[in-house]
Amino acid sequence: MFVSEKLRKQHDKTVEEISTAVSQFHQRGQKFRIRHGSTNSTRQTATKGKHFVDTGPLSSILQVDQDRQTCLVEPNVPMDHLVKSTLAHGLVPLVVMEFPGITVGGGFSGTSAESSSF
What we know:
The chain is an alpha+beta fold. It is about 35% helix and about 15% strand.
C-alpha cells in the first residue's frame, strides 16, 4: 500500500512527464542530460541549456511494507531519510551507503555501496 493516494498520483504524474520528455528527445534524435536536483560530485557539469530532463521531483518514500520487508522509493531520496523511515517500521536497508546524503539513485547508479553503515 502506498503512503498516500495523493503521493502515488503525484509520482505517476511526474513519471509520465519524464517519460514524455525522454520520448520527445528520442523522436528528435536529440541528446539530453538528466538533471536530478543536486550532486555531491566535485566535477563541473553543464547546468544551462534546454536539453535536460528534470528528475529532481522524484524524492519521496512511496511505500514501506513491513510484512514483505521491502520499500518503494524514488531515486532522489537521501539514504539517511530512507534509514530513518525504515527504522520506524523496525527495518533497515541491507546496505547503507557510507555517505548519509547520497541518494538511493546515486548510490545505485554510482555503485556507492562501499559500506553498510554511516
